[in-house]
Amino acid sequence: FLAMARGLGRSAWGSFFVPFPWWGWTALYLAGLALLAWPSRRRAAGWVLLGAAVVAFWSWPAGPAVRDTRGVALLDVGEASCQAVLWPDGCFLIDAGTSGIEGPGSGITVIEPFLARAGVKGLTGIVLTHWDRDHCGAAEDLIQDLPVGFLAYPASDPPEPDLPRRIAAIASSRHVPLIPLARGEELITSGPPLAVLGPGEPCDLPDENDRSLVARLTFGPTAVLATGDLERRGEQNILAAGLPLRAYAMISPHHGSATSSTQAWLDAVAPKVVFISVGRANRFGHPSPAVLARYASLPARVYRTDRDGALLLKLTEGRPMVYRYRDGDWSYRLFRRLSP
After folding, report:
1. CA–CA separation, 245 vs 101, rounded Å?
2. Which structural domains are found in the chain, ordered by start?
3. In 3D, which of 254, 256, 202, 246 has the Cα closest to residue 225?
């Protein structure tokens, strides 16, 4: 039964998202439910109100448009990673991870609802830093449910094991181009350019984490560094290449693991903002107290999804601003509010 429901949900008409409804439609719906509990002569009115509310929900605009937003949203996907790179006419993801092993993954429960809320009906592309489930596991659902322009991954790690092979097969069946990326290449879209800093090709680092794709995203003078699950040896490899690393914001390598964020790396990046994508009370002990101590020595603000919820770095004409979901106002700063 669940397989049948999931299969039907893949069709264009099998599932849909609605925006946060106007309070009037909700009141109409509740009034209809209340009238159904009254004597039979009032039940007809209840059904009419319920029907009107359902029609209103169905026909209401599919989602508020992005209001000239330029920035990066760090989604709260638990002990996983997903960043949405937003600009007025497009969006691509850096990683599409899920932390769940059974049941609906974050693609369905977090990422797709976020995109619907943003009015994003298709992705310019998905850039995977590596093939661990917590960085790529939601890509299956996203590629099947949404138009996706490309799927990029580190050239040093072609999609060979079971999960990567399955994701690549789904992408190919949907005619989504597969793009291997290596050091020195730049991914050009209609949005901010993405410069690939590592890994090199060929890459002899034995640990897949150290072969994570590391990329520097630039919005004019403001740079954001995406690091995947990079660890100490991978950091040393990129530092030795002498590439520009300085960035206003850095996604913490490997969820703040003790095996990453060496002092030499932090000195080279010199971030003003550090984002840590981490699950609440996770079994790995992320972020490491030693890493947090190194971050505390920087002139940088540190934000964590386990405490702050989803995070938005919004890049305006002036100073970049960070909004936390748990502050309760970031979605209204990011999106145009609908009025009845």
Report:
1. 35
2. 23-60 (no CATH), 71-334 (3.60.15.10)
3. 246
Which residues on adjacent β-strands are paired with residue 275?
A: 251, 303
Rounded CA-CA distance 213/226 in Å is: 8
CB 314 within 8 A of CB 273: no
Edge to edge, what strands does the sheet with 311-314 contain?
178-181, 151-154, 125-127, 90-94, 83-87, 71-74, 311-314, 321-324
pLDDT in tens, 86-136: 998 899 999 999 986 655 789 988 999 888 878 788 999 999 999 999 999
Residue 55 DSSP SS3: helix
Dihedral sign, Cα of residue 302, residue 304, residue 307, residue 309: positive
DSSP E strand stretches across 259-327? 273-276, 301-304, 311-314, 321-324
Q: What is the pTM of this model?
A: 0.83
* C-alpha count within 13 angstroms, C-beta hemisphere, residue 148: 31
- Over the stretch 230-277, which tens digit does the pLDDT of each residue have? 999 999 999 999 999 999 999 999 999 999 999 999 999 999 999 999
57 contacts: CB under 8 Å, gap ≥ 6: 18, 21, 25
Cβ(265)–Cβ(239) below 8 Å: yes
Question: 133 to each of 69, 137, 164, 287, how far by Cα in Å?
Answer: 29, 4, 9, 19
